[in-house]
Amino acid sequence: MQIEVSRDVFQLAQVFTISRGSRTEAQVLTVRVSNGAFQGRGECVPYARYGETLGSVEAEIRDLPNHFSRQSLRELLPAGAARNAVDCALWDLEAKRAGKRAWDLAGLTTPGPEITAYTLSLDTPQAMRAQAAKNAARPMLKIKLGTPDDMPRLEAVRAGAPEAKIIVDANEGWSAEIYADLAPHLVRLGVALVEQPLPAGEDEALIGLQRPVPVCADESCHDRASLPKLKGKYDVVNIKLDKTGGLTEALELRQAALAEGYGIMVGCMVGSSLAMAPATLLAQGAMVTDLDGPLLLAEDRNTPLIFDDAGVHPPEAGLWG
Prior knowledge:
This protein has helices at residues 54-62, 70-76, 81-98, 102-105, 125-134, 150-160, 176-188, 241-244, 247-259, 273-276, 279-282; strands at residues 2-18, 21-35, 38-44, 118-120, 140-144, 165-169, 191-195, 215-217, 236-239, 263-266, 288-289, 307-308, 311-312. With 321 residues, the protein is α/β, with parallel strands linked by helices. An eight-stranded parallel beta sheet has the order 4-5-6-7-8-9-10-11. Strands 1-2-3 form a three-stranded antiparallel beta sheet. It has a two-stranded antiparallel ribbon with strand order 12-13. Strand 5, helix 6 (150-160) and strand 6 (165-169) form a beta-alpha-beta unit. The longest helix is centred in the first third of the chain and has 18 residues, at 81-98.
C-alpha cells in the first residue's frame, strides 16, 4: 500500500473570525492511498486547539507502515486529524475497488440532502446584522460567540434574519453563570442549540444546571471514549471526523450516542468538499448538520459537493466514496 500526503491551501471567500482568531485561507492535508490500480483520497484539517499542526499530522501519516487496515489503523494512530484523512481515504479506496458506494459498504441507506447551517463570522453587531440580512433566506444560521459583547451580536443577527433557525457556538468562552444569565435571552431570541459554552476541562459545572436551550458537546466529545464523561452535562454531541479520527469511529460514536439518548450534530472544520463528503453519511437524520466548510471558500475541489435549497447533497463518486 502506498500513501502520499500533500499540503493544499484554499482561499476563503472572506476573512473568517472566531473568538480564537481570524483566517483568510484553509490549510489542509490531502492523503492518497493506492493499492494496485485504485486510489482513495481523504482530507483533514489539523487543529491547534488539540495540539495539532500541519507538520505534526503529516509526520504521523508518513510514519505509518506499508500494511494496515481500517480496523488496525485505530491501533496505529490516535483519534485526530491524521487518522481521519487516512481512514476516509481507505473508505474511498474500498468503494472504488468494490465498484460500490461507501454507504453501501457501511450498510447504510442511500443518503439524501440535509439542511446545513451557515456560519457567520464574528464581527461587530452592525456587521453581523448585515451578514445575517444577506443570508436571511438560509434556513439555519450559526453564530460564533464567546465574547463580552455576545448579546448585542445575537440581537443584531436575529434582527437581520428574523425567520432563520439560529444555533450558537460559544467556543468554550462562557462560564456556567454566563450561560444561566443568557439562557432566557437565548430562548427569547429563538436559539435552538448552544455548542460548548464552557471550557472542556471545566464542564462539570453543567451538571444540575437548568438547560432551557439544549447544550452540545464539541471540544468535550471526540470519540466513544468521551461519552461517559458527558452524562448529565450535555444534550447533544457534535461529531466531527477530525476529532473521531475518521468515518469508521464516527459511525460507531453516532450509534453509541443515539443509544444513550443524545441528539446528534454533525460538524466540520473549515475545509474543502473532500473533507465534508464522508460526513454527509453521518448527517442523515441528524438534529443539526453543520457542513458549510465549502460555502466559506473562494475555491474548492473538482467535482465539489452540491449545495442548494434542499441542503448539502451526498458526494458524487468522482469526489469521494
